[in-house]
Every structure is written in structure tokens, then in C-alpha cells.
Amino acid sequence: MAKAFGFVDYGGPETQEFLDRPVLAAGPGQLAITVRAAGVNPVDWKIRRGLFGRERQLPAVMGQEAAGVVQQVGPGVTGFTPGDEVFGVAAAGGFAEQTLLLARMSALKPANVDFDRAATLPVSVATADDAVRDVGLGSGQTLLILGIAGGVGSAAAQIARSRGLRVLGTASDANREHVESLGAVHIRYGDGVAERIAKAAPDGVDGILDLVGGDALRAAAVTLADRSKLVSTADPVAAAQLGGRYVTRSTTRESLAALAALVAVGELDPHVTGRYPLTHAAEALALVESGHVRGKLVLEVA
């Protein structure tokens, strides 16, 4: 049996608990791994609350991204062998001692990238990469990132800057130093945010990457003339109402390998700011659910 952390019903944190499940065998297109680290993301608690539907078989193990060591390679999978150090999108929950990865959304971990940082790449950093590409701006243009201080926002700022974009980002005053360390212009969120954005970008912004949604997105959208350049990872309904769209995900083995290579040479920092043992999974998830995490949190499993 392998220890795992998940939820037994849809709802709040009270539905979460530790689970024992059999060691999983790799099926077609899968890798079975011993988990070494798993990323903690907002999507984890949103799934638990049923915001993406309630069709999952319960109990369900949480966690969408993980890194570890290959135990078994499933039928039809090439490019991996037992003993390889890998990272990828979890097919059976990442908050566990052992799990399955989707081989087509997994890649070999560079030797000089630790498991903690690798575990942030399949969902958090890859979402940032997809979203910046999806907005579609060119060098010299201005991108506004709503909710820049978290894991996705921190990665998106670095990726955008590497492509020659000027970056503005909304965050609390407590996160000003972190935002500026990313090479971005800090914009305090809250009442009057549109005026503060206009002061920093008098001609308006050329694109918006929304990581928060709701009223914060609606307040900032007035600074963007071309609403086709509005992409959200958080609120597809509001984005569509405003003329924008939800992010298009395009994660592949090749795109993950490219992101890992950037981390390996020091050109991209996932900004892991908190590391928790699997036994403290509930604590890490509660911090992410609060919406006030700076950088990225990971669970260290082994």
C-alpha cells in the first residue's frame, strides 16, 4: 500500500484525509513513479470543491503535477526506462508516495534541477508558458498580469520578460519587492486599480493575463483596448463576457523539456518558497486556497 492525500467528498477542507491505496501499475501511455515531490496548485482545491464537475470516482487523490523516479514503463511508451528521474502531469494524483504520470506530458529531469523545482513545471510553469504565448504579444509591448506574485504569475513574468515584453503586475504591497525582483512594475490591487494601471501605462496595456478572475479582472479590463488579447487561467466566464478567452493548454514532452532546460541554465526560477512534507499536505493546500501565497509551494514526499 502507498500513502496518499485526497478527498472523500466534494466540498471544503473537511472532506480531505489521508488514504491508503494499492501500488499502481503503469497502463498504456503511463509511467509508474516513486514520488519525490509534488506541486500544490489552486486547481487542486477547485477540483475538491467540484468547480470542474463531480464525476471523479471517490475517494480521489489530489495533486496534478509530480516529479520522481520511474518504477515501471507502460505499454506503448518510449523514451523512458526504470530508474529515470522524471516530472510530469499526474494521471492518478500527485500527493502520494507512488503514482502514475501521463507519459506524453512528462519529461526527463535534468541532473542539476532538483525534484522540488521539477515538480512545479508540468502545471504551474507550463500554464504560464502557454498563457504568455496565447496572449500573443511581441517584443516591446506591455503585458499586465493580474495576480503576479503566485507560482504561475512569477513564472509568466519571467517568460514574458525573456521575450522582450514590458510587464506590469497586480499584487499586494507586501509583495512589491518580489514583483520588482521579477523585473515587473508593481501595481497594488484593490479599489482604484485601473487608475494605477493607467498611471504606469498611459497608453493602456497591450495584453492581460488574468490569474484571479471576478471583479479584479473586470476592473482591470478597461485598460485594454483589444480584448482579444485577454487570456484567463481563472475565470473563463468573465473572460468571455469581456471579449477574451480561457487559456489554451498545449503541454507536451518537448515543451516541458524546454522549460526544464531554462531552469537548468538559470534563466527561469520557479520560485519555490515553501516546502512541506506529505504529512502537512492540508497545511500547504490551505495556504494556496487562501490566495495569498508568494511563489510556489511543493510537497516533499521522499
Describe this structure in words.
- The protein has about 300 residues and is α/β, with parallel strands linked by helices.
- About 30% of the residues lie in helices and about 30% in strands.
- It has two domains: about 1-120 and about 270-300, Medium-chain alcohol dehydrogenases, catalytic domain (Quinone Oxidoreductase, Chain A, domain 1, Alpha-Beta Complex), CATH 3.90.180; about 125-245, NAD(P)-binding Rossmann-like Domain (Rossmann fold, 3-Layer(aba) Sandwich), CATH 3.40.50.
- It has helices at about 40-50, 115-120, 120-135, 150-160, 175-180, 195-200, 215-220, 235-240, 255-265, 280-290; strands at about 1-5, 15-20, 30-40, 60, 65-75, 85-90, 100-110, 140-145, 165-170, 185-190, 205-210, 230, 245, 270-275, 295-300.
- Strands 3, 5, 6, 7, 14 and 15 form a six-stranded mixed sheet that branches. A six-stranded parallel sheet has the order 10-9-8-11-12-13, with helices on both faces. A three-stranded antiparallel sheet has the order 2-1-4, with no helix packed on it.
- Helix 3 packs across helix 4 and helix 3 crosses helix 9 (about 255-265).
- GO terms for molecular function: oxidoreductase activity.
Short précis:
This protein is 29% helix and 28% strand. The protein has helices at 42-48, 115-118, 121-135, 151-162, 176-181, 193-200, 214-221, 236-241, 253-264, 281-290, and strands spanning 2-7, 16-21, 30-40, 60-61, 65-73, 85-90, 98-108, 142-146, 166-171, 185-188, 207-210, 230-232, 245-246, 272-277, 296-300.
